[in-house]
Amino acid sequence: MKNxxxxxxxxxxxxNSVNDLVKQMYNSGGFTAKNLAIGVDILKRMxxxxxxxxFLSFPACIIATGxxxxxxxxxxxxxxxxxxxxxxxxxxxxxRSWKNYYHGSFFxxxxxxxxxxxxxxxxxxxxxxxxxxxxxxxxxxFLKEIYPKNKELSSYELAWKIGKRINNKDSILYWCYKNxxxxxxxxxxxxxxGYQIWQFSQDHDFKMDVLKDEKLLSDLVWxxxxxxxxxxxxxxxxxxxxxxxxxxxGLKYAVYITTAVEWDGSLSGARPREAISWGKxxxxxxxxxxxxxxxxxxxxxxxxxxxxx
Length: 309
Hints:
By secondary structure, the chain is an alpha/beta fold. About 45% of the residues lie in helices and about 15% in strands.
């Protein structure tokens, strides 16, 4: 029994910082609290590792919330080298650069909301003028400006060109453009921006070159000495990230944040140990799964990282 570590109670004092709290969460021993603290430790090591190519993947839904500000600060501070996300991230980042989303309720009457032209995303209300209408207006303008010199673009090139035109310091895409952080969107047509691209292509010879995105990822992972990732949620963003990292010898650092279960066989719920079996995470990797809503976990994680870094 002498090698066992005793559980310690968390003691909150006014002078405590977020980092102090996270350290106490580790010492508390359980349950998700300890995993969150382990995740901060792994991310600190990954970010400070100069030989590590750092990936961040996330679904678009969190960009409809204030958590967008955390992702923005991460790319502004160059904590990650590559982003992999969904088309909805472009949608929400463009829309919220000009219009507001609003507090709502999970229990609102969706039929009434539809009559009023309000779309519900969880407990966020998104009026038509704050989403489809403003995205159509801005993308039509952007594509007309981009098209004369660019008949074909990868998703990361398009993201940079959009970020340049957003020119708003609250925007994720703006900071990715400024810092030349590639934003890979494997499902580029699955969203409002993708629909606007399709519409524009009906009377212009404009195309998206998704294979150019893959060429960039191939060049990056094959050259990388080691790779690591913060993977928020699941779906296409998560899989695209871990798929490519099997060619780097597997991620050496991996932090998952998810609320999905693994017993239905979904990729979103699959834990790191499953990815190890595919070679997508290295067998010797530092890894953890934080089973928590990212809108709760990310602000705590980022605050603690800021203090440690």
